[in-house]
């Protein structure tokens, strides 16, 4: 008697592949947002998360109203059997402040020039505000020539905006020595030399000093110099240190008297409070 034979058929289904189109989904408080994604070979998607308010019957659309972590399991259907794809997760979160950059990075407006402000934040509209009443373009990048504080608000979607600032833009000023270009050195003392220059400036001290620190302390008289590189130009600054000659009129008068032997016929002289016998001396140092 022959044993019965069996034939098995294996049906290989093509797996569903889900891809989130954003690494993070931004959500403003009180709003309901849709999580964007694409899914190849998907027949259904199973969603989990803290704030799901609605999903379509097949799961190809999901709306949420809370921040948190959401997971999606894509499924493909073959011969009434489901084949699960890779489980993925996406974060729904408050929008961060949009990054604001300046070019040049110090925000200094060199003579006859301007400063570029820009962002890499993604949004549907860009609102720049700053000093004055000049119109600022609704764009990811603008050029400005007025000093002051600038702010950016990016509309992520209707009713949801993220803002940042200020980005401070300033006029260029020629480098100078703080307090003037000369100082008096008291005996045994020191004098501090400080260069005031705009952001990004480079100070190079000349011999006998050295280095790039804008502040130096000296203890000897002389002329000190440095070169300042700023806004594409260079300046040579000189500082003169002079030694103080102290000459103070103290205004003191000292009377000195010598006491003489008294004879019987001479009366005793009246002595002043300070006694001595030398002429008055005015003291000077």
Description of the molecule:
Helices cover 0% and strands 48% of the residues. It has 285 residues and is mainly beta. The strands form 8 sheets. Strands 2, 5, 8, 9 and 10 form a 5-stranded mixed sheet that branches. Strands 12-17-16-14 form a 4-stranded mixed sheet, with no helix packed on it. Strands 19-24-23-21 form a 4-stranded mixed sheet, with no helix packed on it.
State the total count of DSSP E strands.
26
Largest sheet: 5 strands, mixed
Indicate the low-confidence ranges by residue numbers. Answer: 260-265, 270-285
Our estimate of the beta-strand percent is over 45%
Number of helices: 0
- Gross morphology is elongated
Overall structural class, as computed from helix and strand content, comes to mainly beta
How many angstroms separate the termini?
139 Å
Mean pLDDT: 85
Features:
mainly beta; disordered C terminus; 26 strands; 285 residues; single chain; 48% strand; 4-stranded mixed beta sheet; 5-stranded mixed beta sheet
At a glance:
The chain is mainly β and 285 residues long. It is built from no helices and 26 strands.
């Amino acid at each position: 008697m022959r044993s019965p034979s069996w034939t098995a058929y294996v049906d290989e289904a093509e797996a569903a592949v889900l891809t989130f189109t954003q690494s993070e989904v931004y959500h403003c408080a009180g709003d309901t947002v849709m999580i964007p994604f694409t899914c190849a070979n998907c027949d259904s998607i199973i969603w989990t998360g803290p704030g799901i308010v609605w999903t379509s019957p097949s799961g190809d659309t999901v709306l949420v109203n809370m921040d948190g972590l959401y997971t999606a399991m894509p499924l493909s259907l073959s011969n009434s059997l489901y084949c699960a794809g890779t489980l993925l997760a996406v974060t729904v979160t408050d929008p961060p402040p949009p990054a604001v950059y300046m070019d040049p990075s110090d925000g200094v407006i060199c003579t006859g020039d301007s400063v570029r402000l820009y962002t890499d934040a993604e949004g549907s509209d860009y609102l720049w505000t700053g000093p004055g009443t000049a119109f600022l373009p609704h764009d990811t990048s603008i050029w400005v020539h007025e000093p002051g504080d600038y702010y950016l608000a990016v509309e992520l979607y209707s009713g949801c905006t993220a803002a940042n600032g200020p980005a401070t833009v300033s006029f260029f000023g020629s480098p100078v020595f703080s307090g003037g270009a000369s100082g008096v050195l008291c005996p045994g003392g020191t004098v501090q030399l400080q260069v005031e220059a705009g952001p990004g400036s480079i100070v190079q001290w000349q011999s006998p000093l050295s280095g790039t620190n804008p502040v130096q302390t000296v203890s000897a008289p002389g002329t000190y110099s440095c070169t300042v590189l700023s806004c594409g130009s260079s300046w040579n600054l000189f500082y003169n240190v002079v030694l103080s000659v102290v000459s103070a009129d103290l205004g003191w008068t000292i009377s000195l008297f010598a006491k003489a032997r008294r004879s019987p016929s001479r009366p005793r002289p009246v002595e002043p409070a300070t006694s001595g016998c030398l002429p008055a001396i005015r003291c000077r140092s």
